[in-house]
Write a structure and sequence with these properties.
Helix content is about 40%, strand content about 15%. It has about 180 residues and is of the alpha+beta class. The chain has 2 domains: about 110 residues, no CATH class; about 70 residues, Arc Repressor Mutant, subunit A (Orthogonal Bundle). The longest helix is centred in the first third of the chain and has 13 residues.
Length: about 180
């Protein structure tokens, strides 16, 4: 399978003391390749420059590249772990596991992301490819007049209802078909 290209992951962290006094003060922080301590240091530097004295509290008010995986008070440890997984070789599998709720823990999703099998083929094409690859001898035994009349759309619907095929929208690859959806 093809691997996705790296996504830029960044968060906008706002100073809550400034926010609560009617002012906007914050910073976009690039999270790619950074650990929790490095992200925390950038937040502390932002808070030190706050227009409100002794600002201490912060919140994540926006994200790029994280989808719905990072919330207002997600820990920087989780932010760093998610950013690492989203910029790695198995980003699509990680995103699928997290965004569908199959995994709620970034470490679990990262550990299983490599196992997610996917293709850019439509579901019917994916089912036909899988069946022809795994059952080539049986397909060769079918008379040619029947071979081209198999309802692959119907077979794909059955596999989707069983959870074996799942369509998933990925920001890098577009709409993909997960071919082992029931494996998790």
């Amino acid at each position: 399978m093809t691997t996705t290209t790296a996504t830029e992951c960044r968060i906008y962290v706002a100073c809550l003391a400034a926010y609560n006094s009617g002012r906007l003060h914050g910073r976009w922080i690039d999270c790619d390749g950074k650990d929790a301590d490095e992200i925390q240091a950038e937040v502390q530097a932002m808070l030190a420059k706050s227009p409100v004295a002794d600002a201490e509290e912060w919140a994540i008010h926006d994200t790029d590249g994280f989808g719905r995986m990072v919330g207002e008070y997600t820990s920087f440890e989780d932010v760093a772990a998610i950013a690492e997984a989203l910029t790695g070789d198995h980003a699509l599998g990680f995103r699928f596991l997290m965004e569908t709720g199959i995994c709620n823990d970034a470490a679990d999703a990262a550990a299983q992301a490599e196992e997610v099998q996917w293709t850019t083929e439509r579901p019917a094409e994916a089912v036909q490819s899988i069946y022809e690859e795994c059952h080539s001898e049986e397909m060769d035994k079918l008379p040619e007049a029947l071979r081209y009349h198999i309802d692959w759309e119907g077979v794909a619907r059955d596999w989707q209802m069983a959870g074996d095929l799942v369509e998933f929208d990925d920001p890098e690859e577009g709409r993909v078909t997960i071919t082992n959806g029931n494996s998790f």
